[in-house]
Amino acid sequence: MEVTKKPFGSGANAKFAYVNPAEESILGSIERMRLELAEAQKETDKKFETFKLTMQPLEAIAIAMRRRFFSNYRKQTGMTYGHRAAIERGHIAAHHGDVITDTPLAVSRRIKDTDTYRSLYWISPEQAKPYFNSKIMVKMINKRATMLADFRPGSKPWDVGRQEAFEKVLSFWNNASSEERRKFEDIDGDGLQEEREWLKIVYA
Fold first, then answer.
1. In this structure, are residues 4 and 27 in contact, taking their beta carbons and an 8 Å threshold?
2. pLDDT of 163
3. Is residue 104 part of a domain?
4. 11, 63, 103, 154: most buried by Cβ count inside 10 Å?
């Protein structure tokens, strides 16, 4: 970079600054670059945080599925200690609905088939996050996806009655106050009609 010394002002009060050809002082140029680097770092941090939120839920699923692989081998070779629980967790990870894991994947476009996402979970990826703080809502939404995706002979279908119950519970939760949601979270089957609808779905 070519640098020149340029006077500002006149006479005894003249000040000098080193400037580049664009008439920008060296200190100004350094400050501009510092700000640009700071902005670039913020953008990098933001992308990393998004990546972490997207990929972190997959860790537990990947571990469960690989443990299932090892446990299946132990089962076949007669080394049966502890294999049943690992196999069951692996089955759940691979074949059950998981709205908390699938949502960031859909939002980040790592899963691009959002029509299938909506078909499974009924809601869009953009609508899902408010439900994450409610264990019972996550459980119900996951149950819907699990039943819809279960094509095994003899498995229970997701029928019209369960869909109606699902929509009633969803509508109730969407319009409920914080206190109503808190009471609903402690489901015992003896309270609101929506509690009985929830039980009908989750324990199908």
1. no
2. 92
3. yes
4. 103
| 8 Å CB contact between 39 and 28 | no
Residue carrying the six token digits 């949601």: 181
3-state secondary structure of 19: strand
> Which tokens sit at 127?
């609508």
- Angstrom CA distances, 187 to 39, 162, 191, 199, stand at 48, 18, 8, 8
Domain region containing 65: 42-76+91-128
Contact assessment for residue 148 and residue 120, using Cβ atoms and an 8 Å cutoff: yes
Distance between CA atoms of residues 10 and 76, nearest Å: 92
pTM comes to: 0.62
Tally the domains of the chain: 1
Q: What is the mean pLDDT of residues 172-191?
A: 80
HSE on the CB side for 134, CA within 13 Å? 24
How does pLDDT run across 94-133, given as a tens digit for each residue? 667 888 888 888 888 878 888 889 999 999 999 998 998 8
pLDDT band at 184 (very low <50, low <70, confident <90, very high): confident
Angle at which helices 135-149 and 178-185 cross, to 10°: 60
